[in-house]
Amino acid sequence: MTARHGHIEVQGLDIRFDVKGASVRAVDGVGFDVKPGEFVSLIGPSGCGKSTVLNAVAGFIEPSGGRVALDGRTIDGPGPDRGVVFQQYSLFPWMTVRKNVEFGLKMKGVGRSERETQARTLLGLAGLLAFENHYPDQLSGGMRQRVGIVRALATSPQVLLMDEPFGALDAQTRVVMQEILTNMWQRLRLSVLFVTHDIDEAVFLSDRILVMTARPGRIKAEVTVPLPRPRTAEMTSSASFQSMVRTIKGLIREESLAAMGGELKDGGLAGLSVEVGPQGVTGVV
Ligand SMILES: Nc1ncnc2c1ncn2[C@@H]1O[C@H](COP(=O)(O)OP(=O)(O)OP(=O)(O)O)[C@@H](O)[C@H]1O
């Protein structure tokens, strides 16, 4: 199945925030697109503006300049064509798993039996059907986040926007969740914009990775991931996987160092030299 909708276009995106009366430039002239059915990750040093870009595509933040569009229409607010998943599980604790998934459908006016069928189909795809009548606090973190993804998918969005969705999970659960997500994505073929700090995760999941500069965030590099699909855990130890991880790590390291240099300057430490010995930093002179 080929997706025909879900083309995200970001052109010349500038975003500034007012902080204590001063204008802080978070994102500066960012441009990229996500083709229908493509999986694209945004990665970069902390504070470079990844979440800000994603929030602009979600319609939660209004751009200070530039344009964000979905299928040719300028985005001017949140909408059911975009499902969003955050790191914090935002499930309603008083609703069962299935009722949580059905919520968006109910808001759209979908009838009871159709809601139930759609929710159960997606829960089955995520391996959660046996838990449909459980409450969120009866589930593990990984299961809760799977429900969060299913809930975001329930209204059949054209685009899934994910901000560090596995950031709160332990390493093993995270790997399993990545496999589940890549399997679900392959069946549904909707466009995904995925924000992460985890380079291995970005390479494992993505068709393309956009590496951002330190703040103000721009696109520093675009890395295409040529690994075949379906992706398997074994691929992560291949030479080409590891080489991509090294390349991206190098790009982010340059930016993290640049950002720290800036912070040192901002803190009035410019001009000082750092002495580095075999045990690490030994003094500031
Ligand atoms: N609502 C806001 N008001 C003021 N400044 C903000 C706001 N949201 C973000 N910022 C600033 O914009 C910059 C980019 O933040 P953003 O959260 O997008 O970065 P990020 O790359 O997602 O960071 P991290 O990887 O640490 O989550 C940061 O300097 C942040 O402090």
From TrEMBL:
Domain spans labelled ABC transporter: 10-239
- Superkingdom to which the source organism belongs: Bacteria
Keyword list, A-Z: ATP-binding, Cell membrane, Membrane, Nucleotide-binding, Transport
Q: Which SUPFAM superfamilies match?
A: P-loop containing nucleoside triphosphate hydrolases
Q: Does the keyword Methyltransferase apply?
A: no
Q: Spell out the molecular function terms from Gene Ontology.
A: ATP binding; ATP hydrolysis activity
- Indicate the family of this protein: Belongs to the ABC transporter superfamily.
- Protein known as: ABC transporter ATP-binding protein
> What lineage, starting at the top, does this entry show?
Bacteria, Pseudomonadati, Pseudomonadota, Betaproteobacteria, Burkholderiales
